[in-house]
Amino acid sequence: MAAINRGQVLPSTKSSQEEIGTKYAPSSSLSFLMGAFDIDKSYFALDENQEYNNLGKERHRGIEFSLTETLTHELRMVAGLLLMTPEVLPKTAPGEVFGKLPIGQTHRFGQISLNYSPTQLPGISFDGVLTYSGSRVASVDNRTPIPGFSTLDLGARYQFCLEQHSTTLRLEIPDVTNTLNWGILNDGGLLRWPGRRIFAYLIVDL
Predict the structure, then answer these.
(1) Is residue 44 within 8 Å of 55, Cβ to Cβ?
(2) pLDDT tens across 35-91, in order?
(3) Considering only CA atoms, which of 42, 41, 43, 44 is closest in space to residue 16?
(4) Strands 30-46 and 52-70: what pairing?
(5) Alpha carbon 81 to chain centroid distance?
(6) What is the pLDDT of residues 87-146, one digit of tens each?
(7) How many angstroms separate the CA atoms of 152 and 198, rounded?
(8) Mapped to the 3 state alphabet, what secondary structure does the chain carry?
(9) pTM of the prediction?
(10) How would you label 141-166 residue by residue, b for 16+ Cβ within 10 Å and e otherwise?
């Protein structure tokens, strides 16, 4: 549902962010990153009058991990995990019903990507990305839950010379398993992702 004040310029607000992190690399082929964060910012969403408005504060606290490893001279992996506690700290608004979770935020998000470049096939590489997102809510009162989902994206790349120009042929297949998950807009509206598709690109450096 569109806000009745759609297009209105809203007043500026303050936000704060604190972060700390560390990195450990026991070898040139392996590294770990870990960070913690605490973010406070204004919570904008549709109010009971269908106005897109500042409803109070939202706070995001969590930790994130990432790992990068060259498994072999042909295979490289990057993995990441986010564990977060999002919460709404609403201002007093008579008649409003607030849930504890901000719209569109999840407690868990993870991703693993692999890139394989076989030496027997010069210029050719294959890649895959497995993504997991936990459940979310799509309404201020938290009565519209959206379940978590996992997606798998696959791709391939061929790099070669075309008339002495560096050229890349790229093939991508997002959401191979056709998950058809939901995206959540800032105002709580829902957008159905298109699911499995096939894209091909030809990029030539002139």
Answers:
(1) yes
(2) 999 999 999 888 888 888 888 899 999 999 999 999 999 999 999 999 999 999 866
(3) 41
(4) antiparallel
(5) 11
(6) 998 665 555 667 899 999 999 999 999 999 999 999 999 999 999 999 999 988 898 999
(7) 13
(8) CCCCCCCCCCCCCCCEEEEEEEEEEEECCEEEEEEEEEEEEEEEEECCCCCEEEEEEEEEEEEEEEEEEECCCCEEEEEEEEEEEEEEEECCCCCCCCCCCCCCCCCEEEEEEEEECCCCCCCEEEEEEEEEECCEECCCCCCCEECCEEEEEEEEEEEEEECCEEEEEEEEECCCCCCCCEEECCCCCEEECCCCCCEEEEEECC
(9) 0.86
(10) ebeeebeebebebebbbeeeeeeeee
Residue-level pLDDT at 67: 98
